[in-house]
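ARCHIVE CARD
Drawer: 12
Card no.: 0347
Subject: one protein chain, sequence and derived structure
Cross-reference: see card 0346
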Amino acid sequence: MQTVMRQTIVRMDESLFQKVKAAAKKQHRSVNSYINNILGEAVTGTVPKLNPKDYQPSAEMLKLGSLLEGTTEEMNRLDSKSQYILSK
């Protein structure tokens, strides 16, 4: 069975487009492929896999990590991206 691909137009601010374009390039994807992937994850609730090499935590995140280290209750309250980052 062939997948039907629908073409659509999306308006976005130029600065947002430049950020999307840079993010797509970083993942070696086209802007179209990148947007499709992001939208697919958004509607299915999939958590994107993070590559620790691609993420440099801020000083605030590192401080938070040291404060939360070893406290399961606090870790469980964090969003999945933060849990992943802090578990590495």
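Annotation on reverse: DSSP finds five helices and no strands in the chain. Residues 13-46 form one domain.
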